[in-house]
Write a structure and sequence with these properties.
Length: about 110
């Protein structure tokens, strides 16, 4: 994982990373390390609540991170506490619009 400033992660940056695709064995997908993010909100997604979205503040930047299939984490993270994260960055295409989507890979309290 690479320590990254959120200001450097945008769609152009993601397009550059995707030039190295396809990712898999021998060409692992890059992950990014973000330090000291404060959880501002947690929202359940889907019918069963097994997926959710966290709004996290890193310095002056706020982002939403999607958490898939980590239901056990819901009782281990708390609003207004700070965490370090490892994320994957994907492109989300919805209703004709492209945006960045941040997907949680790991989280721990600092």
């Amino acid at each position: 994982a690479f320590l990254f400033n959120l200001k450097n992660i945008n769609l152009n940056f993601l397009q550059e990373i995707n030039k190295f695709a396809p990712f898999g064995i021998g060409n692992e997908e890059p992950f990014f390390y973000l330090e000291n993010g404060k959880i501002l909100a947690i929202k359940e997604l889907g019918k069963t609540g097994e997926h959710w979205k966290c709004t996290i503040q890193f310095s002056q930047e706020k982002i939403d991170i999607i958490i898939f299939n980590f239901p056990e984490l819901r009782t281990k993270i708390n609003i207004n506490e700070n965490y370090n994260l490892i994320i994957a960055v994907k492109e989300n295409n919805w209703q004709g619009r492209s945006s960045l989507q941040f997907l949680l890979q790991e989280i721990w309290q600092n």
